[in-house]
From TrEMBL:
SUPFAM superfamilies: Thiamin diphosphate-binding fold (THDP-binding). The pyruvate dehydrogenase complex catalyzes the overall conversion of pyruvate to acetyl-CoA and CO(2). It contains multiple copies of three enzymatic components: pyruvate dehydrogenase (E1), dihydrolipoamide acetyltransferase (E2) and lipoamide dehydrogenase (E3). The keyword Repeat does not apply. It comes from Apatococcus lobatus. Keywords: Oxidoreductase, Thiamine pyrophosphate. This is pyruvate dehydrogenase (acetyl-transferring). The keyword rRNA-binding does not apply. Signal peptide: none annotated. It comes from the Eukaryota. Its EC number is 1.2.4.1. It catalyses: N(6)-[(R)-lipoyl]-L-lysyl-[protein] + pyruvate + H(+) = N(6)-[(R)-S(8)-acetyldihydrolipoyl]-L-lysyl-[protein] + CO2.
Length: 411
């Protein structure tokens, strides 16, 4: 499809709320591809799925050149975004918490290839790539990290609180496991509205033994809610290996009566196939659990070097054998669609795009001072923080026993 036609299609489908993110990235000029005919379908084998109480889908997947280029470019951009966020933090331009997902890019990219933006999604604090997969911009991510108003939380939320209401991305939440009951509620909303869409509820292996998960599974199964639970098993919860935290780290089996699939989460095509299957299953039969076997290259957060509880060899071994971007790059090269030099040139363009987005984000202003007092109380109640009356230009302690006459140093 010619790029101009693609852009028109994107504008139309954005209005209809069903835009697919890879195409969205192309439309924003990331894909400096020459105009080309629609590419022909090819089939590839992915690592076989393992099923729990369900017959797994075939491991032969259909794809094409355009889709693979889009996946490759989107994952590459996500990787650069995460590495750039690391740099911004070290330069003290980004502040607060920061959890990076480099290594895990195959999951959001494969997931979004199977969904549209009318399906809803909720994620943990490791949310930058998920947000971009949902059609959020990298400029907005950088702006949020640097506390600027062009971030999705107007610079007040930071890394853990990305959000995209128009594309049904409900965060970005900081409390481990908090998103699981909320995502179950999103599934309830889809069922109640009978809108033919599903809720993808994503959590980590470190959340997978919490009690609230099993309450959520039970409710979703009793009511046949269209919820796809996705456990991103990156094999560590902070510095604790999954085998030390879980009696049974076979998370795809842990829903008991909820069927599950083990998925090679380092292969975006396997993820796509599993998500297509899971969406259909959830709409027809109720909840299903996908275990995405994946890996994070960075430490748990920016303050964790990530090398005390695992060996450097383990990290470099996974990078060599299973890297999600290298995998797709190899497919592209093997099919003769581009050679290594052409891809290098393309990567240079993509890096320049990320740098340009950072510069744009830096132009975004910090929030105005009054934002400090907004979003605390319902509008109209005024900025009253007990026991202190707060105004923009004054802080007055009330008179009386808790006022200035009391010992203010006893807090
Ligand atoms: C209820 C709760 N307990 C503990 C924490 C501290 N904490 C933050 S992240 C984390 C590990 C979670 O690991 P996992 O679910 O595997 O996600 P990952 O970080 O690997 O993406 C913990 C214990 C928290 N944020 N919330
Ligand atoms: Mg984990």
């Amino acid at each position: 499809m010619a790029l101009s036609t693609l852009k028109q299609a994107c504008q139309l489908s954005r209005l209809a709320g069903t835009l697919r993110p890879a195409i969205y990235l192309s439309a924003r000029g990331f894909a400096a591809e020459p105009a080309q005919e629609e590419s022909e379908t090819i089939t590839l084998e992915v690592n076989p799925f393992k099923g729990h109480k369900v017959e797994p889908p075939s491991n032969v997947v259909e794809t094409n050149k355009d889709e693979l280029f889009d996946m490759y470019k989107t994952m590459f951009l996500m990787r650069r975004m995460e590495l750039t966020a690391d740099q911004l933090y070290k330069q003290k331009l980004a502040r607060g918490f920061l959890h990076l997902a480099d290594g895990q890019e195959g999951v959001p990219v494969g997931m979004e290839a199977a969904l549209d933006f009318d399906d809803s999604m909720i994620q943990s604090y490791r949310d930058h790539c998920t947000y971009v997969g949902r059609g959020g911009t990298m400029k907005a991510v950088f702006a949020e990290l640097m506390g600027r108003v062009d971030g999705p939380a107007r610079g007040l939320g930071g890394s853990m609180h990305l959000y995209h209401r128009e594309h049904n991305f409900f965060g970005g939440v900081g409390i481990v496991g908090e998103q699981i009951p909320v995502g179950t509620g999103l599934g309830f909303a889809h069922q109640y509205r009978d809108d033919g869409h599903v809720a993808f509820t994503i959590y980590g292996d470190g959340a997978a033994n919490q009690g609230q998960i099993f309450e959520a599974f039970n409710m979703a199964a009793i009511w046949n809610l269209p919820v796809v639970y996705v456990v991103e098993n990156n094999h560590y919860g902070m510095g604790t290996a999954d085998s030390r935290a879980s009696k049974s780290p076979q998370y795809y089996t842990r829903g008991d009566y909820v069927p599950g699939l083990w998925v090679d989460g380092m292969d975006c095509l396997a993820v796509k196939q599993a998500c297509l299957f899971a969406k259909k299953h959830a709409l027809e039969n109720g909840p299903i659990l996908l275990e995405m076997d994946t890996y994070r290259y960075h430490g748990h957060s920016i303050s964790d070097p990530g090398s005390t509880y695992r060996t450097r060899d383990e990290v470099s071994g996974i990078r060599r054998a299973r890297d999600p971007i290298e995998h797709v790059k190899q497919i592209i090269i093997e099919h003769g669609w581009a050679d290594a030099n052409e891809l290098k040139r393309l990567e240079k363009e993509l890096k320049a795009q990320v740098n340009a987005d950072v510069e744009e984000a830096k132009k975004s202003p910090f929030p105005p001072e009054e934002d400090f007092y907004n979003n605390i109380y319902v509008d109209g109640l005024g900025a009253k923080l007990r026991p202190i009356e707060v105004g923009m230009d004054k802080i007055q302690l009330p008179k009386g026993p808790r006022g200035p006459s009391a010992d203010a140093s006893t807090h």
